[in-house]
Amino acid sequence: MKRSWNTLSQMSNGTYAVQDFERAAYRLATEQVLYAADARSRVAYHLVEDHYADFVAALEPLGIRLERNAHYRYVVALPAHGEGTAVTLHETLALLVLRQRYDEAMRQGLIEDHGEVVVELPELQESWQALTGRAMPDVGALRELARTLKRWGVGRLVDSESDDPQPFHLRVRPAIVEIVGEQWLQRLDQHNRDEAGDADTEDDDAAA
Predict the structure, then answer these.
(1) Which of 16, 40, 114, 158 is the most buried (most CB within 10 A)?
(2) From the CB of residue 173, how many other CB atoms can be counted at a distance below 10 Å?
(3) What is the CB neighbour count within 10 angstroms for residue 12?
(4) How many CA within 13 A on the CB side of residue 32?
(5) For 19-51, how does the pLDDT look when each residue is reduced to its tens digit (9 = 90+)?
(6) 3-state secondary structure of 181
(7) Cross-referenced InterPro entries, in alphabetical order (predicted)?
(8) Does the pLDDT of residue 154 top 50, yes or no?
(9) Which of 190, 184, 191 is nearest to 100 (CA)?
(10) DSSP letters along 78-118, please?
């Protein structure tokens, strides 16, 4: 670690306590993304931004690397070795589909404030089917998926107005660019291999 939290606290002349640095580091490790635009994470974001090299040095021994985006003002913590939490197939597919929608919006210049992209349900349904060859989960399952996306800092669900026929839409957040990379394609490939293996086993059982 470059400088201790105690040293940094003393250098701030009482602006930050040791616990502030500890909490910010813990939040990076557990929440993965800190956005300056979010009221709940704004203070922690600025603390990390102002002491970026120290947080990089503190998290490196834990196998966590930091990336920051100065334009959209967020900091993201990533596993240094490409390993992450276990995810379901639906979670993997949701991330891949939303990353595709985000990239398409980037190409078309449809990025909104703070780097977010709005994805309506009809658009999501069409993209889900086209990209995965599977039917999109129902509304209840999508709400559950949205909670996971929010926890990972890559998306959030916004309920629609009462006169809107669709119950909600999704807002894809810019850190999805760093989080959903090559390792997610590898996970999808592994899921597909596992499913193919399960199908072969069922066929063998049936034949027996």
Answers:
(1) 16
(2) 27
(3) 15
(4) 20
(5) 999 999 999 999 999 999 999 999 999 999 999
(6) coil
(7) JetB
(8) yes
(9) 184
(10) EETTS------HHHHHHHHHHHHHHHHHHHHT---GGG-EE
